[in-house]
Amino acid sequence: MKLLEVAETLFNDCNNLIPFSESEVVKINSREEGYQVQDYFLEQKEKNGAGNIAGWKVALTNIEMQKLTGINEPAEGAIFEPLIYNDNAKIKLDNYVHLGAEAEIAIRIGKNISIDSRGFSNIDEMVPYVSEVMSALEIVDDRDYGRKASLGILLGQNSMNYGCVLGEPTYMDPMKIDILKGSLLVNGEVFGIGSGKNVLGHPLKALMWLANSLLKRGRTLNTGDIVMTGSIATTCWPIKGDTVVANIEGLKPASLEVL
Questions:
Q1: If DSSP codes are grouped into helix, strand and coil, which group holds residue 138?
Q2: 92 within some domain
Q3: Domain range for residue 77?
Q4: Residue 44 located in a structural domain
Q5: Residue 218 CB burial class (10 angstroms; 0-12, 13-18, ≥19)
């Protein structure tokens, strides 16, 4: 199966809410193939009314998440503008196969990173590109893949991103966001705890990794883009009636309710 056909298969399965166990078997052999499939997948999304790309997520920046999946490197995926929600979002469980949520530190990009940039080697270089910081919930749907998803499959279906919920933004010294501690709450109970240090050691390191990866793909980050830097704790899997909150110290919380 050609990579375009793989992307079309993954797009149709995701679009039609077909779980992993019922989907057509596809194979993606490498990271490079995974991003080629993702590019085709994103084209399919855009052609079918998903809107414009307004940000990116970085997956698997947390060592615990890497252990759970068996994938020992980060991965990225695009976030489409209509799927960026404000705090107190209401989402419908029926729109997902297997809904997940993750507590994260999100960054808003303050100025364009030139597509001609040679890349970055130090997190200090990322500070001028940060305009705001906020707590956030990433919305994911793994379609019941669980640990069966390879890196290629993860990349091919846009790293399973289905949007995000953003808390009220603030400005703080970006170099200090690694010390922020936070928790993921489900119905008021602590599901998981963590800090910015859980994200590759520093959320700016995740931002730098993403910027370099996008530049290699001929893409970049632009003013206003949202970057989800990665989960500070493990993923929760809410059901109908649940309320999920990302509560990170020094930042306004981000919450969603599942209808």
A1: strand
A2: yes
A3: 53-258
A4: no
A5: exposed
Q: Does 27 fall in a domain?
A: no
Helix or strand (DSSP H, E) at 41: helix 31-47
Amino acid at 99: L
Paired strand residues for 182: 194, 248
Distances (CA, A) of 172 to 5, 73, 106, 158, 190: 45, 28, 12, 30, 26
Burial class (CB in 10 A: 0-12, 13-18, 19+), 127: middle
Q: Rounded to an integer, what distance in angstroms lies between the CA atom of residue 137 and that of residue 178?
A: 17
Question: Is residue 85 within 8 Å of residue 201, measured between CB atoms?
Answer: no
- H-helix or E-strand spanning residue 209: helix 203-216
pTM of the complete model: 0.95
* CATH assignment of the domain containing 189: 3.90.850.10
Q: Which of 116, 115, 136, 113 is nearest to 203 (CA)?
A: 136
Q: What is the pLDDT of residues 196-254, one digit of tens each?
A: 999 999 999 999 999 999 999 999 999 999 999 999 998 999 999 999 999 999 999 99
Question: How would residue 91 be classed by pLDDT, with cut points 50, 70 and 90?
Answer: very high
Answer yes or no: is 78 within a domain: yes
Structural domains counted in the chain? 1
